[in-house]
């Protein structure tokens, strides 16, 4: 999965479903665990629960009686699990308490809801999220307690309460979060949400004969919360966020321009080959910097007999892990025109950043009118265009300011459908083999740095199996997931390990989670030739989305990063996908100036030249100017 604002492998639904979860950032944490609790050290250790639905998920969300029955069962399991298990991951605790707080608000248990909201603050380590935590939920409770069922008074009190909480916050810290929440709130509508349910959840419920996992059940709780609490207050929420943006809309200082270094083509340096292992690249945009396989003309044949047809500037694999000659992801399946989807992508990103552009206005208008199958078509088109554009955008960042960089493409393909392709052991074997073939290809062509702005996660396999009705029981499905994920994980780990002279720069992920606890690969790998990168914004402050963990070593700009997309237009995208190639760019410049450096030495120099930012979770921010100047120091 490309790890942009969008994050899964089997599909990239988080762009869509994230609109809902993004509205629910007010909630979670845990109390101190008792000594006799059973420790939970990884996401796979969490207990699994199932629930039986009488009809569809769509029907459940619209039925007070059906939802109440599910809510009661979900609450009972959550409270029992929290009492029994010592969950050591703060992000997981936040997610679980989020569900409980949503239920408390829906059921009118306001005192319990406020306690839950307070818990998240105790665990939150990102300053902006800590400051924003519970403000919307707390304003809702305050307004409901003051106004009761007087709707007009309730809305007025809610808006004023929220404004009173938002205005004193330090704008330089919370600006990005407030702008993103404004954008998320503007986009979400009841028809859009219900369209996502009918496209992504109802088919899964049908395939499992109405038996759903806790994962889907908790999603339904969040969606019911959005339907009953957030969407009815959309006007008030947008007004409050917009008012604060208007009062403080001064751009943060951009620290990155003054740190940038541009190499010249005539300086004393050595060309360095960068591998862009991603969703495909429009090579026409980088013609002067391409690695060219002279023994392989474009004729539909494998002239050099290396197993790849027409691998003139690199190799590619399709969604089944089989070789294909197309280095740029095909867009034949788009239901809209490419230019239209490019506009939709830019508009979507502008809405998230509270940028008042024509594209943002068009997307808001379009999303406001979508319902039914049109929701699925729009989301799948946006995801497919994302696959089409992602690798080219990443390549542009990695090559910026380095005429000595030489580009070699390795494309892998991600499913963009809301109903994911069913994982199989055969597909996992193909993926594992693909990883090794790709790394071998890099070694054969002298690649020194590889950028990997993507990742795989154990949980997404289990979710895809459920949505395809695989597994007679939840335990059987979990065991099959473990077998599949191990095959994939071992294949990728051994492939990277087999190339000790190549530095693999990896994006941490965009789920605000601990990559080790949640089994995210490759960002959880601890290898001497792997450098994992988290994302900060233009001012060097951690983004709300960046994942983290012991293996995440450095942070770089991943907010509104400008680069090219296929065809040559420029677009600003956000994500650890954009932070990672900023670090690959720096690594390639180091190697161009000193080709004798080994991966471990490159990592050490990048870290030595970085700026340390202390806090609950210390960070090292890359500083290209200082790092490259430090080459003179032996």
Describe the structure.
It is a single chain. With 634 residues, this protein is α/β, with parallel strands linked by helices. 49% of the residues lie in helices and 11% in strands. It is built from 21 helices and 17 strands. It has helices at 14-21, 57-62, 64-84, 90-107, 110-123, 127-132, 135-147, 151-166, 171-187, 190-207, 214-230, 234-248, 338-352, 358-369, 373-399, 425-444, 458-467, 474-497, 576-593, 599-608, 624-629; strands at residues 38-40, 50-52, 85-87, 211-213, 272-278, 314-316, 405-411, 447-452, 456-457, 503-507, 520-521, 530-536, 552-557, 561-564, 570-573, 611-613, 619-621. It has a seven-stranded parallel beta sheet with strand order 6-7-5-8-10-12-13, sandwiched between helices. Helix 3 runs antiparallel to helix 4 (90-107). The radius of gyration is 24 Å and the shape is globular. The model is unreliable at 3-34 (pLDDT under 50).
State which percent range the strand residues make up.
5-15%
Total helices: the number is 21
Strand order of the largest sheet: 6-7-5-8-10-12-13
Binned, the helix content reads 40-55%
Question: Would you kindly provide a brief summary of this structure?
Answer:
49% of the residues lie in helices and 11% in strands. With 634 residues, the protein is α/β, with parallel strands linked by helices.
How would the blueprint of this fold be written?
Blueprint: H1 14-21, E1 38-40, E2 50-52, H2 57-62, H3 64-84, E3 85-87, H4 90-107, H5 110-123, H6 127-132, H7 135-147, H8 151-166, H9 171-187, H10 190-207, E4 211-213, H11 214-230, H12 234-248, E5 272-278, E6 314-316, H13 338-352, H14 358-369, H15 373-399, E7 405-411, H16 425-444, E8 447-452, E9 456-457, H17 458-467, H18 474-497, E10 503-507, E11 520-521, E12 530-536, E13 552-557, E14 561-564, E15 570-573, H19 576-593, H20 599-608, E16 611-613, E17 619-621, H21 624-629
Parallel strand pairs: 1-3, 5-7, 5-8, 6-7, 8-10, 10-12, 12-13
Antiparallel strand pairs: 2-4, 9-11, 14-15, 16-17
């Amino acid at each position: 999965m490309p790890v942009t604002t969008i994050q899964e492998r089997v599909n990239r639904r988080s762009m869509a479903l994230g609109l809902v979860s993004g509205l629910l950032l007010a909630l979670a944490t845990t109390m101190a665990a008792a000594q006799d609790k059973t420790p939970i050290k990884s996401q796979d250790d969490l207990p699994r629960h199932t629930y039986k639905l009488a009809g569809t998920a769509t029907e459940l969300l619209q039925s007070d009686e059906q939802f109440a029955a599910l809510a009661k069962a979900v609450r009972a399991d959550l409270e029992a699990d929290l009492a029994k298990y010592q969950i050591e991951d703060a992000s997981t605790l936040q997610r679980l308490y989020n569900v409980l707080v949503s239920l408390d608000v829906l059921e009118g248990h306001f005192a319990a809801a406020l306690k839950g909201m307070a818990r998240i603050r105790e665990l939150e380590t990102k300053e902006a999220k800590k400051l924003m935590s519970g403000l919307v939920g707390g304003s809702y409770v305050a307004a409901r307690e003051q106004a009761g069922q007087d709707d007009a008074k309730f809305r007025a009190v809610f808006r004023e309460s929220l404004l009173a909480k938002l205005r004193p916050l330090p704008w330089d810290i919370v600006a990005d979060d407030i702008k993103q929440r404004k954008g998320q709130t503007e986009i979400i509508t009841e028809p859009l949400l219900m369209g996502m349910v009918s496209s992504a959840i109802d088919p899964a419920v049908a395939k499992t004969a109405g038996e759903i996992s806790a994962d889907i059940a908790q999603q339904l709780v969040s969606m019911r919360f959005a339907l009953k609490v957030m969407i009815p207050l959309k006007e008030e929420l947008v007004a409050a966020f917009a008012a604060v943006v208007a009062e403080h809309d001064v751009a943060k200082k951009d620290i990155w321009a003054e740190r940038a270094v541009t190499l010249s083509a005539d300086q004393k340096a050595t060309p360095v080959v960068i591998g862009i292992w991603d969703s495909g690249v429009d090579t026409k945009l980088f013609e002067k910097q391409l690695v060219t396989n002279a023994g392989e003309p474009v004729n539909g044949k494998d002239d050099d007999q290396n197993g790849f047809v027409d691998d003139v500037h690199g190799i590619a694999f399709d969604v089944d892990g089989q070789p294909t000659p197309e280095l740029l992801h095909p867009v034949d399946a788009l239901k809209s025109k490419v230019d239209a989807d490019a506009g939709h992508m830019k508009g979507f990103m502008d809405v998230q950043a509270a940028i008042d552009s024509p594209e943002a206005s068009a997307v808001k208008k379009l999303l406001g009118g979508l319902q039914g199958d049109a929701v699925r078509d729009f989301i799948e088109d946006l995801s497919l265009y994302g696959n089409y554009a992602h690798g080219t955008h990443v390549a542009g960042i990695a090559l910026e300011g380095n005429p000595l960089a030489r580009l070699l493409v390795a494309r892998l393909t991600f499913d963009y459908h809301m109903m994911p392709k069913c994982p199989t052991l055969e597909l996992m074997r193909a993926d594992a083999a693909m990883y090794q073939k790709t790394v071998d290809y890099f070694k054969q062509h002298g690649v020194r740095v590889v950028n990997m702005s993507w990742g795989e996660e154990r949980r997404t396999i289990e979710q895809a199996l459920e949505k395809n009705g695989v597994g007679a029981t939840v335990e059987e499905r979990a065991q099959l997931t473990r077998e599949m994920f191990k095959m994939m994980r071992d294949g990728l780990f051994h492939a990277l390990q087999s190339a000790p002279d190549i530095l693999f720069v990896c994006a941490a992920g965009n789920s605000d989670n601990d990559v080790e606890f949640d089994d995210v690969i490759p960002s959880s790998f601890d290898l001497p030739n792997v450098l994992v990168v988290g994302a900060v914004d233009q001012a060097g402050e951690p983004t709300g989305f960046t994942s983290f963990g012991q293996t995440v070593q450095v942070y770089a700009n991943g907010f509104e990063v400008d680069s090219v997309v296929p065809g040559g237009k420029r677009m600003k995208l956000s994500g650890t996908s954009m932070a990672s190639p900023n670090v690959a760019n720096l690594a390639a410049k180091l190697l161009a100036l000193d080709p004798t450096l080994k991966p471990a030495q490159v990592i050490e120099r990048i870290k030595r030249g970085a700026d340390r930012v202390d806090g609950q979770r210390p960070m090292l921010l890359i500083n290209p100017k200082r790092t490259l100047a430090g080459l003179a120091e032996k």
